[in-house]
Structures are given as structure tokens and as C-alpha cells.
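Sample intake sheet
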Amino acid sequence: MAAAGEIIVSRTELDRYVVECLIASGASEDSARVMSDVLVTADYRGHYTHGVNRIDVYTSDIKCGMTCGGGLHPTVVKETVATALIDGNNLLGPVVGKYAMDIAIQKAKSAGVGIVTVRGSNHFGIAGWYSLHAAKQGLLGMAMTNSDKVMVPTRAKERSLGTNPISMSAPGKDGDNFVLDMACTTVAWGKVEMRKAKDETIPRGWAVDSAGQETTDASAVAGLQPLGGQEQNSGYKGYGLAMMVEVLTSVLSGAEMCAFVRKWKSHEKPANLGHCFLAIDPDAFADGFTDRMQDLIDHNRNLEPVEGERDVLVAGDPERQHMALCDKLGGIPYHPNQITFLDGIAKDLGVARLQHASLSS
């Protein structure tokens, strides 16, 4: 259930707020609506690090002319039956991402697989939105991006790669699915921001300061640790995964790469982020995919949990639980500090503040 003091906001009201904020910043209505779908979906699924809390980043990028808010479309640079290279023309990341994943889906339906790489894009929000976009059409979907958030490798104190998130979705039966959505760092950068907004410390193993030393002070964070943390805990594997994503995004597409990508929330140059989207038609392979996929999901869910745990989950289950909570509450729960932050943005943009559906007790 929602924690005491949390504020409940309906998804309809959140959509209104995001669209109006983006339009007030200079975005086209079509672009704003795509953006809103991605951001509100992130919060609905419990990924607050990539949701409406990010609205200041997108609006400031548009206002200062660093991101194109509309009026253009992504461009197909080259393509084959199963592949495409897209130039995002510096449009909002979700606008570019949806366009690219739609092409990957079309190619998968005709060729069995579609692989699309992107350059000239921006932060595209929650990676799981794109993989689920394919899964809803019975396909396996994958999405990944290089990032303008900072990773500091296990043997370095300077920034190297980004958080470089990756997502994969695979459909089971009756709307069930497997949805992996993860960064290649111990946590996403937004989790540090959320702790800072709530005046909370961060756990050990999340991040390092400017000297490359582990810190629990959210205000002192200069970089995130790779998945696994320090080298003795296999942090080199997270570092390797991030480099794999870099190969498939920036290197393959010609986008800006690793530490040369502009820093998060800076405006010294366009981001020129790279993405990679894959869609796979399971019917191009062995028959009965959804049955076997459901067997795999159910087998793991039915395992006996260790002492102290209630059940065994598969990727996507925590999000399903959060969506069920939101449906029960009639909206999405937020910490009061988040609402204060969002109301301040609305005031700056001349947009109506969020209307609260209810206050949890």
C-alpha cells in the first residue's frame, strides 16, 4: 500500500501536466503526447527514476534549443530487409525511439527479425517501454541506449561509459510476459536523485565521489559504480555489459560514445545519443513459443522462496504489483517533495499545477 503522506495523482492528470509543460516549452503536441506516454508509464510501472520527475530535463533542453521539440521527423539513412540506420535529427528521445522500434517491428513481421540502430537522439526514458511495445504485438523486443549519466569503472576514478540501460520483453500467455529493464550500473542515476530529493543517504556500493571513493552522500556523487560494484564483487561484468551496449548503440550507429557524450543536465552540445532496437518474431523459429515461455515463467514463480521471503518473482513482476497498487489507489503515489518539485516547474512554465486525486492516510 502507499506510504502515509504520499500524494495520489491520476494518470489522466499526469498526462495533462506533461503535455502542457512540453508544449509550453516549445514542443509540438504530437511529440508531447509520445513523451507523456513514456514518462507516465514509467511512474505507473514504479520506475520513478525515469518518469515525470524527468520533466525538467526535457523542458530545459527544448527551451535552450539543445533538443528539437518537433517539426521534423527521424530520417532513415540506410536500410535492408531486416535492418535500418536512423538519424533522430536531435528530436526528443521517445519520439525517435518509438519511430525506430516501429520500423524494427515492421521488419520483424516481414523478415522474422528487425534490427534498427539510431544516432542523433536524446534521452529516451524507460527502456522497457520500447521492448513492451514489441511484446504487445507478439514479438520479442529489445531496446538499449548509451547514456549521458556517468559510470566510473572498478579501476578508475574518471568517467568512462554511461549507465547504458538494456531491456528485453518476451510474451507469455494471456498477457503475461517477461520484462527485463536494467542499467549496467548498480542502480540508475535517478535513484540517487530520488534519495537526494528526499534528503536520504544512499547505500554503499551505489556510487563514488569526485576522488573515485565510495560515498553514501547523495550530494557528493560524481559517478555510479558498475553492476556488481567493486572488482572483487564482479564489477568488471557490469563494466563489460555497458561496453557491449556501447558497441550496439554508438559504435554501430555512429553516435557519440562513452565519456565523450555530454554530461547529464548540461547544455554545451547536443547529446547525439545512440540507441539499438531489436524485434524478433518467434513464429520464425520453433512452434509453441508462448507456451514454453509461460512454462519458464511459471516454473520460476513456483519455486520455494528462501526463508523470510514471500515469493519468487520474475522480471516484470514488481512492475505488475506496482501497477495493481496504482489501479487500487486510483492514481500513482508520489512523495510530497516530488509534487513540490513538479509544481515549481509548472509555475515557471505558466502551466496549471497538478491536481491531487487523494492523499493517502
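Comment: Residues 24 and 349 are 6 Å apart (CA to CA). The chain has a mean pLDDT of 92.
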